Amino acid sequence: YSICVRQPIGKKLFQLFCQSRPDLQNYTFLLFKFSELGKCTLSDEKSPVIYNDVILYVLILKHLSLMSNLSAFFRDLDLYLSGKPFVQYQKSMFFDRFLQWKALERQPVTKHCFRQYRLLGKGGFGEVWACQVRSSGMMYACKKLDKTHVKKRRGEAMALNEKEILEAVDSRFVVNLAYAYETKHALCMVLTMMSGGDLRFHIYNIGTPGLERERVCFYAAEVCCGLTHLHQMSIIYRSVNVLISHIRISDLGLAVRLPDGKLAHGRVGTIGYMAPEVIGHEPYGVSADWWGLGCLIYEMTAGKPPLRSRGEHPKPPEMERRIQNEKEEYTKMFSKEIKDLCSSLLAKDPMKRLGCRGSGGSEVKAHPFFKTINFRMLEAGSVDPPFKPDPKLVYCSDVQDIEEFSTVKGVVLNETDGEFYSKFCTGRVSRMWQNEVHLLHFRVVFLRKN
Ligand code: ADP
Ligand code: MG
Predict the structure, then answer these.
(1) What is the CATH number of the domain that holds 11?
(2) Strand, helix or coil at 208?
(3) Over the chain, what is the mean pLDDT?
(4) Is 46 labelled a binding residue?
(5) What digits encode the pLDDT tens for the residues 303-347?
(6) Structural domain of residue 63, as residue ranges?
(7) Residue 198, ligand 1, Cβ within 6 A
(8) Same structural domain for residues 209 and 329?
(9) Which member of 19, 117, 118, 193 has the lowest number of beta carbons within 10 Å of its beta carbon?
(10) Residues paired with residue 119 on neighbouring β-strands, in sequence order
(11) 145 alpha carbon to ligand 1 midpoint, in Å?
(12) Is the pTM of this model over 0.85?
């Protein structure tokens, strides 16, 4: 089933297969409706909830006279639930073609598959570069982790963790991983290119620090959706790094996947953004992320993070003292609503914090600050961002201002490292790669026709 729905080329070929069969003419319509009905329920496609939803959907369509033959539809629905077409598909020549694509997908990925352009930023283990896939023209951001740095600072588990989480998450509010490969010196994660760059660059480097209400509201709402997606997969994010023009949560190096109902331990996060319970060595859950959202909304509004003045960098112990004991200040830049939202997210006691009182993200989304946001439209990607990046500009610091990244001397890489590298470098991520070549295919067909 998942081959026919989740993998874009598998899906396309399955559609073609259905069109080639008289008895399956309307079948893909149904399949399409099923996948439209939302990813969260799709994993359990036989659940009665979906069944009811589809029927409801169809009745509405029928009412709108968009559907002519309801009995044929119900026949297809039964067929769908029996799973027969999927089995027939796997015996057809369309599936052989799919397997040929899969063979291509499994070809080794090396640096020669990409062109490298400019430096976009620097992280803890290496640089992030703009790059382009030679064969398709698709632009991505390549996050490189220097092998010697990873080894010196024992970052193996963290790197693998980030890669595996990115691979598993499929959300429009989180950066996607398209390829994972290695060069002689680096481990590379090829990620969705975010043309607007880092949100903090916009808060601090363009005009007066801070953003106008409309943007704060839009970004906060999208971060909220992204956090909800992560939390649904039992992932706590534990950072506050987001990229635009639409929001995508990035840098999942600190994210952690929790087994059902378990809590996280460990003082993990960025100085100044860690929640009081994280600093206080208490076990914690998603509450840490809602605190992080509070910090981000505060920062977008005030043009400075909570509990420190602009340009001030208190020592970690002092920053921790303030987070645990002091209340943040609200100047007149904060409207009544936004002040209420920030102070509920920045409640020191996680039990009293907005987002942590039972209903999770929906509690945050229901706050009056978001009353102008249509979250269903936002989730569907049908709301235009308030700020569109100028395609001629690059929204990050000058290349000269990004410090150079050098390799650590004296670190010797050996066989055990090789084992880790092969776990990390799994090549193309099916969903992403198939989308990429699929797009290319359509462009070619379009050009031919015109
Ligand atoms: P680290 O985990 O080492 O901190 P990050 O993932 O935060 O590294 O990346 C470092 C910087 O690179 C970011 O602050 C951002 O400016 C830039 N960057 C990272 N990913 C992307 C991307 N997908 N698109 C554009 N810029 C990016
Ligand atoms: Mg970072």
Answers:
(1) 1.10.167.10
(2) coil
(3) 88
(4) no
(5) 999 999 998 999 999 999 999 999 999 999 999 999 999 999 999
(6) 3-106
(7) yes
(8) yes
(9) 118
(10) 129
(11) 12
(12) yes
